[in-house]
Amino acid sequence: MKLKVSIIEKMEEIVEKWRKEYKETISTYGEKVIADVKVSQVLGGMRDIPSLVCETSFVDPYEGIKFRGYSIDEVIKLLPKVSDFPYVLGIWYLLLTGEIPTRQEVEELEEYIKIRERLPEYVIEVLRNVPTNTHPMTQFAIAILSMQRESLFAKSYYEGMNKRDLWKPMLHDCINLIARAPVIAAYIYRRTYRDDVFVRPNENLDYGANFAYMLNVNDDFVLDKDFADLIRLYLILHSDHEGGNVSAHTCFNISSAMSDIYYSVAGGMCGLAGPLHGNASSESLRWILSILKFFNGIPSKDKLVEYIQNHLAAGRVIPGFGHAVLRVTDPRYTALAKFVEAKKIDSDVIRIVKLLYEVVPEILKATGKVKDPYPNVDGHSGATLYHYNLREHEFYTVMFGVSRIMGMTAQVIWARAVGFPIERPKSLTLKHIVELATKR
Ligand code: CMX
Question: What is the C-alpha separation between 148 and 347, in angstroms, rounded?
Fold first, then answer.
């Protein structure tokens, strides 16, 4: 296939359109008030304050994620497929441009990313110097940060490039990072849990299947078709979740200081590593395994309810349940549940996932304080990976990270393209808040 880089040409046109829209929105509506802010919101983690802009996706509390307006089912139906599932990079194309790519466009992008996959020797060396008992997310953030020295964006900025053009080196850096992320992740997996052999990318495979191949979970270099499909689905599902979540917002915020994508994404990954965010998938699997161990198998519903109540009484959260925005079962959870049904997967771990689905929402509702008692994606993802022999749960957040880089990069490219300013909200002391509240 002749390599044309149409994504770059396409972006040239799209960026002009974005700039116009952005400027017009400010000039037409700049003085309009769109929300009031309550003290409880300021003191409650800024929940629901509409103060961020994110063009790549939107999370509706009752319908869940819409990627550029498309639901998960629509994305899976409309993006060009490589097997039963779409090419993973189709979702990045959609997040970035707002358009569903043609087969040719996505295949060109897959090829273009392939030529950027080669991981420099120094990154492998950096990782080889990190003790293997370092958390995989720490290793991932270190590896990403180590590549900052290569940033074309940083170089262009310091050489004085006009800020209108800075989105171009940013796009270049983002493509490099997307290309290398699964290669880095797979090496972290191999060195931490298996052998220290660096698996080179297989140029005959698409992005998703190649990640499955490099992980080599069965140590046999035989690509399991179903596992490759799961990875394709997984990477699409986790790619973006609008702008307010800890990892996306951290990344966006860091980049607003004109920090390059390596600094920004490494920061975002450190947020994703938290147990209330991306590490909940690891926590969820750990919890499922502890249930199986405690009961020496599958418990009765009554026994499980008692176990969960004791867990809550000890002041702990139920990992994989609840959400700051969603108020229904996360459609990403449902997509994984459908995958499990379609592939007829059955195991003790999956049985516990199903049992939890039956009992946890009622228990959380009964607390009277949990706003979303339903499962989120992290309540299913680990159990599904576990079935395919990807059992080292601390690694799950790295999988999440590889995927989320697509959303983070698409959001940051937009920001650089429209010239989004440095973020600087105003903070107040509690005394100021009381003064303001009593004046109203
Ligand atoms: N188990 C136990 N308690 C929970 C709970 C859960 N799954 N979800 C919420 N609560 C509690 C909160 O801890 C809070 O308690 P306090 O008032 O005592 O502090 C109360 O219910 C109200 O919280 P909320 O408004 O419903 O939820 P938040 O928006 O504050 O938090 C989230 C959202 C995701 C952090 C929370 O639901 C949680 O901790 N879930 C478990 C961890 C998890 O699965 N995280 C992954 C989320 C998805 C992702 O980012 O990947």
Answer: 42
Half-sphere exposure of 378 (CA within 13 A, CB side): 30
Model confidence pLDDT, tens digit, residues 19-76: 999 999 999 999 999 999 999 999 999 999 999 999 999 999 999 999 999 999 999 9
Start-to-end CA span in the chain (Å): 66
> Separation of 415 CA from ligand 1 center, angstroms?
30
User: Quick check: is 170 in a domain?
Assistant: yes
Q: Which residue has the tokens 């046999």?
A: 220
Residue 210's beta-bridge partner residues? none
Q: Which residues contact 32 (CB under 8 A, 6 or more apart)?
A: none
User: Is 378 a catalytic site residue?
Assistant: yes
Expressed in angstroms and rounded, the spacing between residue 385 Cα and the centre of ligand 1 is 23
Alpha carbon of 49 to ligand 1 centroid (Å): 18
CATH for 412: 1.10.580.10
Count of domains in the chain? 1
In a domain, 130, yes or no: yes
- The answer to whether position 312 is within a domain reads no
Q: Is 173 labeled as catalytic in the residue annotation? A: no
Percent of residues, the chain, with pLDDT higher than 90: 97
Distance between CA 209 and CA 231 in Å, rounded? 7
Q: Which of 238, 378, 380, 387 is catalytic?
A: 378
Residue 249 falls in the annotated catalytic set: no
Domain enclosing residue 103, as ranges: 95-276+398-418
* Residues paired with 57 in a beta bridge: 67
**Residue-wise pLDDT tens digits, 8-17:** 889 999 999 9
Residues with CB under 6 A from ligand 1: 245, 276-278, 280, 312, 317-324, 364, 369-372, 376, 378
**HSE of 101, CA atoms in CB hemisphere, 13 A:** 26
